[in-house]
Write a structure and sequence with these properties.
Blueprint lengths: L1 H34 L9 H9 L11 H10 L5 H22 L9 H17 L1 H16 L8 H13 L4 H12 L1 H5 L1 H17 L1 H7 L1 H9 L4 H6 L7 H23 L13 H26 L4 H25 L4 H19 L1
Length: 355
């Protein structure tokens, strides 16, 4: 009886702590920029401010057109501070709705889930706004799919809208659509996902390749008065023992999770994947990281990685680890490795914001 009471007390404390962390984070995102220096803990603030001031500069770029159009409309009627506040409220409310649809109800939240979701709100909703909006649309698409109506006009519109806000959302959209299309692609979906994320790794590590396939990037460099040569050489990243240890520790944690999934005969790793949100989240993150992480580690010794490359590598890695965390907290919320992953993501994000 005493042991049961202790468990109940621990659950209540964990639930209270998790909800408190999320609420504090939400209040911080909404009110901190209005009261204190908005650039504090937000390295992208000024970039988005320029975006709001001169949206016409970006509206011709296919990968920026929708967000630029939103800024163009609101810049004529409200201030940037008001725009940011309204956008933060909209995103937070929408994500809370989606997470609830994914069975993350207030009574189910624990400390580790609080760290995971707080990390996402701070990094994406607060800082990387365009990517947050693009991922939000992808999540909205996911909660609306079913086995009978896989690809509708509405879903195609959501896909175009999402990548029109941030092209990086393709990392999540391409494998998701691969699961839904069926036919030959579905039969070899695991090979397709492996090949796709290997290509993503090459793309992330090579600035020249990104410039070659994305003419819109040249236009953005022109706006910043940067030549393509200068862009390739700016902010070189030195591969140090600390960076290697950092990424290897994440990869080892991922391997432990992957082997646990295999041991538990996870539905997310089955060949014939069902059209279920949990399975799609698990399959993308597990198979994606299985090839993306080691490919990045190998390429880092071969290619000269600059700051822009490293930023893209981190963005892709974070997205995959986050949806892995979401998946694990849905299916295996009590597992130690689930809690470890959520804690690592949360603490790591807080560390980045404070440095």
């Amino acid at each position: 009886m005493a042991l049961k009471e202790k468990k109940n007390i621990f659950y209540i404390l964990s639930n209270t702590a998790g909800i408190s962390i999320i609420l504090i984070t939400i209040l911080f995102i909404i009110f901190f920029p209005l009261i204190f220096d908005p650039e504090l803990f937000n390295p992208d603030y000024f970039s988005y401010f320029k975006f709001f001031q001169f949206p016409e500069r970006y509206i011709k770029s296919p990968s920026l057109i929708f967000y630029a159009f939103i800024n163009l409309i609101f810049s004529k009627v409200i201030s940037y501070h008001t725009f940011r506040t309204l956008l933060a409220i909209f995103q937070v409310s929408s994500y809370l709705y989606i997470f609830r649809k994914l069975q993350f109800k207030p009574g189910n939240i624990n400390l580790f889930m609080g760290l995971l979701f707080s990390s996402f709100f701070l990094l994406k909703v607060h800082i990387q706004i365009r990517e947050s909006l693009a991922i939000l649309i992808w999540f909205y698409f996911l909660i609306g799919i079913n086995s009978e109506q896989k690809l509708t006009i509405k879903n195609i519109y959501l896909f175009i809208l999402s990548i029109g806000i941030h092209i990086g959302a393709l990392v999540l959209w391409v494998p998701t659509l691969g699961y839904l299309i069926g036919g030959f692609l579905k039969k070899y979906i695991r090979f397709f996902v492996f090949l796709f994320f290997i290509l993503v790794a090459f793309f992330a590590c090579n600035s020249s390749l990104r410039i070659l396939v994305n003419p819109g990037l040249i236009e953005r460099l022109d706006i910043k008065n940067l030549s393509t040569v200068r862009f390739r050489s700016i902010d070189p990243i030195n591969v140090t023992s600390g960076k290697i240890l950092y990424w290897v520790s994440y990869f080892v944690m991922f391997l432990l999770i992957y082997f646990e999934e295999v041991k538990l005969k996870s539905y997310a790793l089955r060949k014939n994947l069902s059209i279920q949100i949990n399975d799609i989240l698990g399959n993308i993150s597990l198979n994606g990281l299985l090839v993306f992480a080691p490919t990045i580690l190998i390429l880092s010794f071969v290619l000269d990685i600059n700051g822009a490359d490293y930023n893209l590598i981190y963005r892709v890695s974070y997205s995959l680890f986050f949806i892995l965390g979401v998946y694990r907290n849905i299916v295996y919320p009590q597992r130690f490795l689930t809690s470890l992953l959520s804690t690592a993501i949360g603490i790591d994000t807080f560390r980045l914001l404070l440095t």
